Amino acid sequence: MCLPHVGVPPTVDCGAGVRIPIHVDGVEVFESVGPRECDTPDFKGNCNVGSRIARVEGKAADGSPLEDVVWAYLCRSAGKELFERGIASVQMIGHNKTTGATCFFESPDGIGDLRQAEYLHFDDQGLLAGKLPGPDSEDFDDAFIPPPPGVQCVQCHQNNAFLHDPWIDGAKLPSDPSEPVLPGWVDPEAPYWVVGGTHWDMRTPHIEGNACLDCHRAPTRTARLLEAGKVHVNEFMPPRRPGSLKEEYAALLACHDNGPENTPGCDWLIPPGGGCPGGVVAASDQGGEGGRIPTGRLPGGSN
Fold it and tell me: What is the domain partition of the chain in residue ranges?
């Protein structure tokens, strides 16, 4: 179901990805160090060496380019010791920046199935390598799984398809070392919807005039995830002036935690896309399964 919206998924080739570097006191290290002992831990606070990320241009079924579509895949290392027990993970996202259509693909380790490790290994540089089954393989649907019950990819990827932090943005495009491999479009009005996520909760808190929202919607669930790993948003946001919007950031978190119904001047906002115009929704509108608001998005089939 993703094909009409984002084209054909690429074949994940971890060896073709760009290394996500780990630094300690500004010096790159090539062996994993303990949690939060590196300069830019991942969202869990870990400092494992070996992860790679790649960006791939979109393609239609006939092989023609889809200029508005980009894919990114992440081969996430949990370290060599855990890899010996089959622990590593792969994620892939396809996104159409014009329509906002997004498809998420996740390896099955999230449900305790470690089959993705059968395709992976550490190369002589100490980095994850190996190819997963491509979309033409009968094993593709085993290499990637639908979200387990109760799990929504937008619980983390809340305000846009691509989740940025200093760890993942340490990997730069070989063709342009100033640009992260992970695509970084920022626009508070950019369309965003998940193919197959008709009833997913796409809400973000919105406070009119809040300076954090000049560039993007408020990913407060994502922020809480980072803070839980002791990755503090005020230490790297906003770019070039970290910490300068502490009060605005705190106001958005307070709205997220307490709810707009208990926060004067704050509303829930949903993005446009998938047949939905987006915009502010009533704080009391808690319709939809499991308390999620109905967004009116088109049904589809993210894996």
Answer: 3-291
